[in-house]
Design goal:
The complex is a heterotrimer of chains A (369), B (285) and C (296).
Chain A: E1 4-7, H1 11-20, E2 24-30, H2 33-36, E3 47-52, E4 79-86, E5 94-97, E6 105-110, H3 112-115, H4 117-125, H5 132-140, E7 141-146, E8 172-176, E9 181-186, H6 188-192, H7 195-198, H8 235-241, H9 247-251, H10 260-264, E10 271-277, E11 281-288, H11 309-328, H12 338-342, H13 349-368
Parallel strand pairs in A: 2-6, 6-7, 7-8
Antiparallel strand pairs in A: 1-9, 2-3, 4-5, 4-11, 8-9, 10-11
Chain B: E1 8-17, E2 22-29, H1 32-37, E3 45-50, E4 54-59, E5 70-75, H2 79-84, E6 92-99, H3 105-109, E7 114-119, H4 123-135, E8 143-149, H5 158-164, E9 172-177, E10 189-190, H6 193-203, E11 214-218, H7 221-233, E12 241-244, E13 260-261, E14 264-265, E15 272-274, H8 275-280
Parallel strand pairs in B: 7-8, 7-11, 8-9, 9-10, 11-12
Antiparallel strand pairs in B: 1-2, 1-6, 2-5, 3-4, 3-6, 12-15, 13-14
Helix pairs in contact in B: 6-7
Chain C: H1 5-19, E1 24-29, E2 38-42, H2 45-48, H3 69-72, E3 77-81, H4 83-94, E4 103-110, E5 130-132, H5 139-143, H6 146-151, H7 161-169, H8 172-183, H9 191-195, H10 220-233, H11 243-247, H12 254-269
Helix pairs in contact in C: 10-12
Chain lengths: 369, 285, 296
């Protein structure tokens, strides 16, 4: 891959070029939240991905690590109608397909931890059958990520096999350089479609650099360092072998059972199907759902396999770090840390998995010794 | 690419009330293409829509040896089952499926003795299998059916079950209700299912070759909990004892993340599981 | 000796646990992510050192744990309680959701008018902004204290007044537009409900499906219904702790809805929530001499 260059002050031009080529642009923008929320401004919550037009380019904010909300909903909408049902008086019911109709889209300025979730979710959404809506949106959307220049105590991408400059799930990665430019690395065939935007005649953009590098990291530029927080190698087997350990009773006692962690998570994908409307006219909608809700697994009979919050929390960790890896060969987590930052009760998945990792190492040690 | 959440349309052809809260619907898919492509095996399930209310998961109650309709038997429990009960013959419901795995009738059951144990609403899934075997009678050894319910009034398919033995099939049938719930004219057995099972197998003559036989158990969790050890003690191998698990479901195709028991998805790895597999699952039921 | 308030709190907790007057102390500990405190559950000397005093701006209302079934069997519990937490506990006592004899508190009283409400100040309170009670107390003892009289109505919630005033000046159409834009971000995560001590219903109205009172989908209709109905269910019961708004990952200005209803209840019924165990929230009560005809 021959790296290209982008000058950050030409960002508006770049976005305009992409829009002119027919792409809908999604970028992180500082929201006007602090105007309306009565609590003190919370910078980490003020940057969200939104569809942007020319009037918004100046508000594009590439500094939030990571943004309050990721890019998941551009692939798996929060609420999406999938079937329409109609039944007229005296006639029999009719159903009609609602086709997903996402326009060609470029997501600009995603973080590697958000993009890395996409190939992970591809595995479940194409397991035996293809989820049409997911596939369509993946097809229609190109993702340009920016390597992280800063990180915080909740970031743990490097503990899950990721990195602040990983290209997993990206079609192009921008790596900030010391001179204020960004090195552009196109990824694969899909990335090639983006070359047109970085190739230009004027001096400000795309001059291929001489020192071509391969792989994700190359010159460090301004990429932050995320130290490993735990050793994941013993985590899965500890979870598989210790389903009834008292760690589960204690670890997430503070968990209040909301869906903030699951909804903010780039890899959480559990969804609900509901019919809304009347017998005469209704829509079947596919909505985000959370294994943390009490009624997630509740049977109509009233029986609930997971009546306690601690059991529901165990499910979340076990699904991410044991069941999904067993089935699909990869962890259902990218270490973005959003769950840690957003939890109203201060439950930290990072801290809990860290404890499991330590126990996993001890068990491994026992098994070997 | 298909929309997997778009149901096929089916018309209700017949309604049979099994008990005061258990109803059987016989459906016929409306489109000839759907009828042609709907190929299922006993054990598989479908998701059935009451439009405007939602979908419910039911096992397909008729075996593939009795095609031409799709039969579902369900107990009224919540919003969707209540809505389904409001429908009449001629009304339309949605069908998605068939999903899940099936009882390995061809690969495992053939040539063996098979014992079927059904309790309450669990009689419906077991029935799909034993009807399948009765329809192919020559392929199997001894067939024994044990059905139980709390009371005679809670026993789905009671008359049909009692009539099986006399219908010229070679099958031993035991029908039982809970002790203390019998009326004075109840002519059949009284006793809890695990006890009746033990009695019938031990008294069977010629004996049931339990070490090589197959057993199928469906019913309320507490019944299964007490029946599995009895089967084990009678000599059935855990790999040849089958049950069905059920969990709350939405997509039915392994994507919505809801129906797992440990790493197994009831909609993909099940609903049919062996006792051996069950013992390896975590206590997530 | 100049112990920090956190150390004082730890000592009070440790002695109560040691003599066995409580089995569990529920307080705050430093959070994992910098600007949010974590709820922590202390049952012995081993973990009492985690207790800290979190700025209310970064903490959830600990009274929410008093009704969680995973916790309540560990009673008697002692809740580290600032005035909003105490008011929530009053509300729970009013509504019969906790038993007074299984509940204790370690009261925290604000010492200055401007206790920091900034979410960036999650550090331990060394500035002496909080006075820690010298011992674990019953709610009866707390409610009879002079500190309660002085500080019982203190609130940490950043004032929603400004926004309420702005909204009251808007036309109906403008207000509709304002809330439509806000509710468009609601993801129906229910963090607001989960963090509210007065939202203790085992089955929330939003979880009922026969009939489905509130659409579960994050559509304009579903989101309006959810947020407005929740505010109405809290009318006369909300004790103005701000936990819901702090919890909201989407930054919805939920406090404004609650503040407006609080003002309305105060005006119409001369009532403020969470101050007296023996009173009843006006919308949870009727009397035969109520002036409204329709109720007869």
């Amino acid at each position: 891959m021959t790296p290209l260059t982008l000058k950050i002050d030409r960002l508006g031009d770049l976005l305009a070029k992409m829009a002119a080529a027919g792409f809908r642009i999604v970028a992180p923008v500082a929201s006007a939240e602090s105007d309306t929320s009565a609590t003190a401004p919370r910078p980490r919550q003020a940057v969200r991905f939104a569809v942007v037009g020319p009037q918004d380019y100046a508000r594009v904010d590439l500094t939030a690590t990571p943004a309050a909300e990721g890019i998941k909903r551009f692939f798996l909408p929060q609420s999406e109608a999938v079937v329409r049902m109609r039944q007229n008086e005296g006639q029999s019911a009719q159903v009609s397909d609602i086709s997903p109709d996402a326009p060609p889209t470029i997501i600009f300025g995603a973080r590697p931890c958000d993009a890395a979730a996409l190939p992970v979710l591809d595995r479940v959404f194409s397991w035996d059958s293809d989820d049409r809506s997911w596939s369509h949106r993946r097809q229609q959307t190109l993702v340009i990520t920016i390597a992280c220049q800063s990180s915080d105590a909740a970031c743990f991408c490097t503990s899950i096999g990721g990195a602040p400059d990983s290209t997993a799930g990206s079609d192009a990665l921008l790596v900030p350089q010391d001179d204020g430019t960004m090195q552009v690395r196109l990824v694969g065939e899909r990335g090639e479609k983006l070359r047109q935007f970085f190739d230009a005649d004027d001096a400000g953009s795309a001059a291929p650099r001489e020192d071509a590098t391969t792989g994700d990291s190359g010159k460090a530029g301004q990429v932050t360092v995320v130290p490993p927080r735990f050793d994941i190698s013993g985590v899965r087997s500890w979870i598989e072998n210790n389903f009834d350990d008292k760690l589960w009773d204690q670890a997430a006692l503070a968990c209040l059972g909301c869906g903030a962690c699951t909804y903010g998570c780039p890899t959480c994908h559990c969804f609900d199907l509901v019919d809304e409307g009347t017998e005469q006219s209704s829509l079947r909608r596919r909505n985000w759902d959370s294994c943390q809700f009490r009624n997630f697994t509740e049977h109509a009979s009233g029986h609930n396999p997971r009546p306690w919050q601690t059991q529901r929390y165990r499910q979340r960790i076990a699904h991410k770090f044991a069941y999904f890896p067993e089935r699909f060969g990869t962890t259902l987590c990218t270490g973005c840390g959003r769950c840690v930052r957003v939890c109203p009760a201060g439950v930290s998945l990072l801290e809990i998995v860290g404890r499991i990792a330590a126990k996993g190492k001890i068990e491994e040690g026992r098994a070997d010794g | 690419m298909d929309n997997h959440y778009l149901p096929m349309m089916a018309e209700i052809r017949e309604i049979v009330d099994q008990t005061h809260d258990v109803r059987t619907l016989r459906l016929r898919l409306k489109s000839a293409d759907d009828i042609e492509s709907f190929r299922w095996q006993a054990g598989q399930f479908g998701l059935f829509s009451a439009f405007g209310e939602g979908e419910s998961t039911f096992c397909i109650g008729n075996p593939p040896t009795r095609p031409g309709h799709i039969e579902i038997t369900f107990k009224q429990a919540g919003r969707v089952t209540s809505a389904l009960r409001q429908l009449d013959v001629g009304d339309t419901i949605g069908v998605r499926g068939p999903y899940g795995n099936a009882f390995p009738i061809d690969d495992v059951f053939r040539g063996r003795d098979v014992v079927f144990v059904g309790g309450g609403i669990g009689i419906a899934p077991v029935r799909a299998v034993y009807l399948n075997c009765l329809d192919r009678r020559d392929e199997f050894g001894r067939l024994m059916i044990i059905g139980g319910a709390r009371t005679a009034d809670d026993f789905p398919f009671l008359d049909e079950t009692c009539a099986l033995a006399g219908a010229g099939h070679e099958v031993t049938v035991g029908v039982t209700i809970d002790p203390g719930r019998e009326s004075s004219n109840w002519p059949h057995r009284v006793g809890l299912v695990p006890d009746v099972l033990r009695e019938m197998v031990e008294q069977a003559s010629p004996a049931v070759n339990t070490a090589e036989a197959v057993a199928i158990v469906c019913g309320p969790p507490v019944m299964i909990k007490f029946t599995l050890p009895v089967l084990h003690s009678l000599g059935f191998a855990d790999e040849r004892v089958y049950t069905t698990l059920e969990n709350r479901m939405k997509c039915g195709i392994g994507k919505c993340g809801r129906c797992n028991v440990g790493s197994r998805y009831v909609c993909k790895d099940g609903p049919v599981f062996t006792a051996a597999e069950l013992h390896r699952l975590p206590n997530d039921l | 000796m100049n112990h920090s308030s956190a150390e004082q709190l730890q000592q009070v907790a440790a002695s109560a646990l040691a003599v066995g007057s409580v089995k569990l102390v529920i307080g705050h500990a430093a959070g994992a992510a910098g600007d949010r405190a974590a709820a922590c559950f202390v049952d012995s000397d081993d973990n009492v050192g985690r207790l800290t005093i979190a700025s209310p701006g970064v903490a959830t209302n600990l009274a929410v744990y008093a009704t969680r079934p995973e916790i309540s069997h560990l009673s008697p519990i002692a809740v580290v309680a600032d005035p909003p937490t105490l008011r929530a506990l009053v509300g729970l006592l009013q509504e019969g959701q906790v038993e007074a004899d299984r509940l204790r508190v370690i009261a925290l009283w604000p010492q200055t008018a401007e206790v920091s409400q900034s979410p960036s100040d999650s550090a331990d309170d060394d500035a002496g902004a909080w006075k820690v009670s010298g011992s674990v107390q019953t709610m009866e003892q707390v409610l009879a204290s002079h500190e309660w009289v002085a500080h019982g109505q203190w609130t940490a919630a950043a004032q929603a007044d400004d926004l309420v005033e702005r909204l009251l000046k808007m036309s109906d159409a403008e207000r509709w537009q304002f809330w439509s834009a806000e509710f468009a971000r609601c993801s129906r995560c229910y963090a607001c409900r989960a963090s509210c001590p007065l939202c203790y219903c085992r089955r929330c109205v939003a979880e009922k499906n026969q009939p489905q009172w509130i659409d579960t989908s994050a559509t304009p209709r579903g989101n309006f219904a959810w947020n407005v109905i929740r505010a109405f269910h809290l009318a006369g019961r909300c004790i103005d702790c701000g936990a819901c708004e702090r919890a909201c990952p989407q930054g919805l200005p939920l406090g404004a809805l609650n503040e407006f209803l609080r003002r309305t209840v105060a005006e119409k019924f001369d009532y403020r929530a969470g101050l007296e165990v023996d009173s009843t929230p006006p919308l949870a009560d009727f009397r035969t001499d109520d002036p409204e005809e329709f109720i007869r």
